[in-house]
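Subject: mismatched residue count in predicted assembly?

I count 736 residues in my input, but I want to confirm that the predicted structure covers every chain. Input:
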Amino acid sequence: MMAGVGGGNDFQWCFSQVKGAIDEDVAEADIISTVEFNYSGELLATGDKGGRVVIFQREQESKNRLLSRGEYNVYSTFQSHEPEFDYLKSLEIEEKINKIRWLPQQNAAHFLLSANDKTIKLWKISERDKRAEGYNLKDEDGRLRDPFRITTLRVPVLMPMDLMVEASPRRIFANAHTYHINSISVNSDYETYLSADDLRINLWHLEITDRSFNIVDIKPANMEELTEVITAAECHPHQCNVFVYSSSKGTIRLCDMRAAALCDRHSKFFEEPEDPSSRSFFSEIISSISDVKFSHSGRYMMTRDYLSVKVWDLNMENRPVETYQVHEYLRSKLCSLYENDCIFDKFECCWNGSDSAIMTGSYNNFFRMFDRNTRRDITLEASRENSKPRAMLKPRKVCTGGKRKKDEISVDSLDFNKKILHTAWHPKENVIAVAATNNLYIFQDKIN
Amino acid sequence: MFSKGTKRKFSDGDEEISDESLVGARVASSYSLQRQSLLDMSLIKLQLCHMLVEPNLCRSVLIANTVRQIQEEMTHDGSWHMVAEAFCSAGQSPSERLVATEVLCRSREQDAEPKLFSVISYEGCREEEVVADETLCSVSVSDTVSNVCLAGRIGQCWEKSELSGVERDEEALEDSRLGSGEDEEIDTKDRASTESPKTIGQVFGTFEIKNGSPGPDSALEELFSDVDTSYYDLDTMLTGMQSAPKMGPYDILDSLAPSHSSPSIVSTPNCRSDLNELDHIMEIIVGS
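Triage response: the counts match. Full output below for your records.
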């Protein structure tokens, strides 16, 4: 389901909305650091470097506008994490939200986990649209009434009020991570979740905050021997005993929690053998996996390294079943990208609801989508220039050499400060959220 | 660029230089130069890691692995010391070439067990501050030249001119061991030619701190015996050692005691005056 190359009934991606300031001057705190749809797709959460969480809610589909689906409007905004100072180490702990993960909805309220480098918090987002009036013991403004003045008893009455969305922290899971948390993942049992930092993975129970189980520990006895770190981790979508974690050396380990309390020994080890002809000093760095995601079916997983996205069949460990080049034209620029640190950028990737397509970001505010069935791919841009309502997105192309065609952009003209690291795909529909620095773009399909 | 990482042999100068091998030599030296520049860049990045408040561990590990790769290849090629020589004879100032300067800082004593300071502070602590004494610092933020002693030996640091003042105060120091006790000037040309491949190979070494390893260098041992080596333990750093290079309260008490025999680098001059002051105070209190 891609933007069609030709005409026909293929659908096209169209601009829907953009959230965020238009200023050229971007405030550091406004930079979006994570984007996540909830299980139904009704809610879309973003976290930013300033430690804030903004939740958008999709409005009910209007009968008048059949061609476009409901828009996302701000539902709740709250400060999730504050900057902290570690006095022992004389180091600041950033309030930047690294990850948000929603819990499946079990009642009227919504729950999500948000994590910064050190602490995970469980937030309850609930609506209040009624207010009780006519208390006996206190006044309307909340002051306690003098009990001797009370002469009658009355039953308080619920009166409607303007909708208020409250976010309250229900659990704070702290002091379990020495290193920076890079991933959190809710287990399919909906009772536990895992959190991973550079060297360790912990398993938590959602109700218990004062302890967690350490299930993976790759810290060497002598830190000078450290050559590999954990970069991402995720629970299997159906098997609550299975999880995977990726490393900076381009490997993925699948672990079964039934096998042992400490899952240092993997059940499966996924690694693609290196191509000796393309070996360079940067080979290891570009093989470092920045994101790992299971498919919704649970049969595949996808990994993102610097230049490519790979789809792995969980039953085959020695190589991926599909490899997609995201921006191969950067391979000859690795030295410059090492110099300006771009080579360390951590791009995320995501599946669509049916696992037929995958999406990931690139530079110059470009993002890429790959159709696994047709093997077609497309490059689109998140920019204010294409931001007319329901405007169709035009495919973009990077010119790798030789004559540059019209509308193509040359590699040297790419803006490496405009990076799309975080993207999310609606779990059921063709609606995508793309974070471009401090702006959130929402695109959806246009049904022809 | 580095996209093709095929090894090229550095041409041997003894052979007759034909046209082909001349081209080959040029290509090889270009590769070496590029590799060198990548090495320098990586080392600078690692240094910056130390300066940042919370360095990204993944990034640090990847850069460190790159440095190791380059070092291994250079050692393998045997091109390490030739490159260093080339830079020295080209007359480049020490600060421009981190690697070359490191070589120049080598102590004359080649059999002394090197005490290597860890380059990688994976815990994000300021390495240079954690070391008990500034003068021991092998990773100095301010001074580019001293930055070089990344995997340097302690002996080398004593060669820095900034240490000369402290050195003179220390009677316990054995000049012969420290080599440059008499001579703080770094004679660049002299050092370069006295290279030995073995020491070169130790340059980047294993980023190891040899905690309390019993070296043949007893004077050095004695010198640093009162230094809390747990500072060097990255694990300790992780759990939060102080950033200020102070001695603990008990260390100060120890240094005041007359029986304190190990020469403390900083405290010896203070020790004596403190001792006198203590006596004086005691006299007043006791009223004798």
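DSSP finds two helices and 32 strands in chain A. Marking this ticket as 'not a bug'.
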